[in-house]
Amino acid sequence: MTRQSTIHAPSTARSLSWSTVLALIVLTGCCLRFPISLQQFWLDEIWSYYLTQDANSAWFIITELTHSNNHVLNSLFIYLLGDQPSWVFYRLLSLAAGVATVVALGCSGRQVNRATGYIAAILGACSVPLILYSGEARGYALLALFSVLAPLL
Question: Which residues touch 88 (CB under 8 Å, ≥6 apart)?
Fold first, then answer.
């Protein structure tokens, strides 16, 4: 009797690397966030725009603009962009922070195990509040990102 070795093809789930699966989840999150960023500006975003356009300098935004609608990093981004032909440009920082939040959630969950990382990333990518925050230039996407990153540091 001869022994025959059988070669099993790897399953698709096992052959995909962690970063590939995470990239697919992040791509899904981007597809959900991008259309939101193309919609009309909200009142709070317009208010932030006018507050920053009236500022004398970036230092003024950091030290003296004590308005409740001022999220410093978001306001600085709007101020540094200046007057733009499209409102969408002011939302790019929030969009980037929203996508980075999905990545950070995946990495945070992966500290437990791969499945937890995938679940955390999927929940972050499909979360309606996180999608909404990523599509508005209001500073909440940055808050979510830094909240997820804080325990990782």
Answer: 37, 38
